[in-house]
Amino acid sequence: MRIVLGVGGGIAAYKVASLLRLFTEAGHNVTVIPTEASTRFVGVATWEALSGNPVSNSVFDDVPQVNHVRLGHEAALIVVAPATADLLARAATGQANDLLTNTLLMARGPVLFAPAMHTEMWQHAATQANVETLRGRGITVLEPASGRLTGADSGPGRLPDPDVIFDAAMALTQGRLPLTGRTVTITAGGTREPLDPVRFLGNRSSGKQGVALAVAARNAGASVRLLAAHMDVPAPPGVELVEVETALQLREAALTAAADSDVVIMAAAVADFRPADVSDTKIKKRDDTADPVITLVRNPDILQELVQLRDQTGGRQLIVGFAAETGDANGDVLHYAAEKLTRKGCDLLVVNHVGRDQVFGKDHNSVVILARANSEPQSASGSKQDVAAAITDRISFELSHVLPRA
Questions:
Q1: Minimal CA–CA distance to 121: which of 88, 91, 152, 164?
Q2: What local confidence, expressed as pLDDT, does residue 7 receive?
Q3: Using CA atoms, how far apart are residues 73 and 89, in angstroms rounded to an integer?
Q4: Which of 166, 232, 234, 309 has the most other CB atoms within 10 Å of its CB?
């Protein structure tokens, strides 16, 4: 595949060398077009050596080939990274004052921008307006990562990791970016309810399925916020991470995050109960004292509260619940899951059949997706990445076909 890789004039330009390597190692023919400013960070020789193609940023080089027309016409994909505030502004206003902006105007295939700049520049009203303009034209603009920036400050504005950009670019060429422009909040992991400074009540959740969902939503073009309780796996790059411990902390974070989310996925294993009293000191085991009695109180139902808040305020979130169920003499897993879907009122419910050696901590999963719209149950199984992809596809379908909230 012919790819044009535009490089903007930011310090993050050095990271784009790794992105170029990913493209070439995947067998793609890449032409790099650096802006003049970007060559102050990474020289032309580097791009030529890594791409194997000549590199220019002038419309007056190789004039007989009419590069400012040809490159845009021939490219199956154009990726711009880092996309600086200046580049976003010039692209949004249709300027054509160098080879890269000319090529963008001639593009026939998909275009992806990976922004990188200081937080204040990214959040400025002018930049946000330019991003919305570009997205309104069908151009994909990724959300920047959050973290340490060039100086001592930190926040949203880091260039997404090269593998994140690569995955998004490959998905874009296959028409698999249905969540572009959407904000998705995902809860993951297991909450821990303290008994004393040492001990807690917890569960077996590893966070693997929640992390897989975050990756799938990110790769589908969404801006992803991950509310992470205890997890055995790291959070993926390219998402906003909010760490919590208890169910009450998760409730507060979820209610806050839902306000600007298009989708909320409650994949965390939230404790139903917590100790009524938490000791300030370690509970000692002594022969001369009675065994402690731990009184539990009910934790709030976060999923149900999110649904009620949405319905009361006219919110537009698509809300997805998870049900870790076991059957008994009175009903099977789907029986209890259907009751829960009705009781909770969420749009989709992803049902796991759990047990000591099932689901929790494993790399594979098998689920059934139930919908409030009374469609047929949908099964998905395989790796947790496969299941996450199926859930993400179903969410995309619901957003576009079943629940377009006015």
A1: 88
A2: 97
A3: 22
A4: 166
Q: In the CATH hierarchy, which top-level class contains the domain 183-402?
A: alpha beta
Q: Find where tokens 């073009």 sit.
A: 221
Enzyme catalytic residues: 203
Q: What are the distances in angstroms from CA 214 to CA 207, 222, 351?
A: 11, 9, 18
- 2-173: CATH topology is Rossmann fold (3.40.50)
Where exactly are the structural domains of the chain?
Answer: 2-173, 183-402
Query: Rounded CA gap, 245 and 227, in Å?
Result: 10
**Which H or E run contains 311?**
helix 302-313
Q: What are phi and psi of 157, to 5 degrees?
A: 150, -10
What per-residue string of b and e applies to 251-261 under the rule 16 or more CB within 10 Å gives b?
Answer: bebbeebbeeb
Q: Which two tokens stand for residue 173?
A: 């060429």
- Residues whose CB falls within 8 Å of the CB of residue 211, separated by 6 or more in sequence, listed in order: 188, 226, 231, 233, 234, 235, 236
DSSP 3-state percent helix, strand, coil across the chain (nearest 5): 35, 25, 40
pLDDT of residue 356: 46
At residue 241, what are phi and psi to the nearest 5 degrees? -105, 130
CA 1: distance to chain centroid?
26
- pLDDT at residue number 405: 44
Mean pLDDT per segment of 10 residues, for the chain of length 406 residues? Answer: 94 96 93 95 95 84 64 89 96 94 91 93 93 88 80 80 90 77 93 93 91 88 92 88 95 94 95 91 81 91 94 89 77 82 92 61 80 81 86 88 52
pTM (two decimals): 0.64
CA distance 317 to 263: 5
Cα–Cα distance measured from residue 294 to residue 314, given in angstroms and rounded to the nearest whole number: 41
In contact, 338 and 325? CB cutoff 8 Å: no
Q: Which among 296, 293, 221 is positioned nearest to 263, based on CA atoms?
A: 221
